[in-house]
Write a structure and sequence with these properties.
The protein is α+β, with helices and mostly antiparallel strands and 229 residues long. Helices cover 42% and strands 13% of the residues. It has a single domain (9-225), classed as Protein of unknown function DUF1054 (BirA Bifunctional Protein, domain 2).
Amino acid sequence: MTEEPSFSPELFAFLRELRANNDREWFAANKARYVEHVQEPALAFVEDVGMRLGDVSRHLVADARTTGGSLFRIYRDVRFSKDKSPYKTHTGIQFRHVRTRDVHAPGIYLHLEPGTVFVACGVWHPDRDTLHAIRTAIATRPQRWRAVVEAPRFAERFRLGGESLKRPPAGFDRDHELIEELKRKDFIAICDLSEDDAVAPGFLDRFMALCEDAGDFMRFLCAAARVPY
């Protein structure tokens, strides 16, 4: 039986209107819509993923709390930003590694924004030690890295994204066969989707399948960071 839609077009409609009316007065007048069409479906999605996440990894966490859990807050931190608009115009859901508090461990992220929907797996802006460990793993096991990122199930669905250095990182051979990979500052695999994908029946199944397709990539990064997957 095909799963019911996890999200509705009203989620994207609300976020579009929020983009055009990003102020506290408008949000207060429309907060019930946010709760009904954005927050509650997102928390239900977290719960649904949580019931199946153990089949992907027993070390990723689905936390359906309204604050401090897998669902990112809608409120922006504007303390150090020139942009003082108070609200995010996207919904972010992250399934963090249980060891995230101890080490910058890989996780899985879902981004829902009008015109920009994607699933991302891996580690974004890792700390110095974790970054060095991942680069070292790639440098010493280049064939294994190639096998992971060039595997058809992975390569047909994901692209590698994030920031990179302009020069080779210190301590690594500038002539290494994977020097462009070693320049990466982020090790993120991204699957680009659409709004139609997100509101379609069976989106939960598709999301879980993508998590499984990224399993070897996540396993490589976790091994480098010395955390279980």
